[in-house]
Design a protein that fits this description.
The protein is an alpha+beta fold. It is built from 2 helices and 6 strands; from the N terminus they run βββαβββα.
Length: 125
């Protein structure tokens, strides 16, 4: 998780913003994964707050879980990127991208200008 530089979504999917009405926590996930995510997260009562076309999420910024690469924000790190490799088979329909730990992640980060080809991002001390 410390090496994540982006969140990938499938621009062709519809995403939902939901609230867990018992815990009052808000989540965003692919609409096609709702049933499975509710079950896995043990969410018994929820409300759909918004339906969001995936393409409108591309470019949105988010706060990273770790600040090791905080200095890379000016390179558009910690934004949502579109990626066709995101499927609706498992998970939430949102994939963390860590370019040092996967070919799809690496190519997506290069394609979106988050890192330079052949150069590894260096964390701050």
């Amino acid at each position: 998780m410390p090496s994540n530089l982006a969140l990938a979504i499938n621009p062709k999917f519809v995403y939902l913003k939901i609230v867990d009405e018992e815990k009052q926590k808000v989540y965003i996930l692919a609409e096609s994964r709702l049933k499975e995510v509710l079950k896995q997260a043990n969410i018994k009562k929820h409300k759909v707050l918004e339906k969001i076309p995936g393409e409108t999420l591309v470019g949105k910024k988010y706060i990273p879980l770790f600040n090791y690469f905080e200095h890379m924000k000016e390179k558009k790190c910690f934004t949502v990127i579109g990626a066709d490799f995101v499927t609706s088979d498992t998970g939430t329909g949102i994939v963390h991208c860590a370019p040092g730990f996967g070919e799809d992640d690496y190519h997506s980060c290069v394609k979106n200008g988050l890192i330079e080809q052949g150069k590894a991002p260096v964390p701050i001390d």
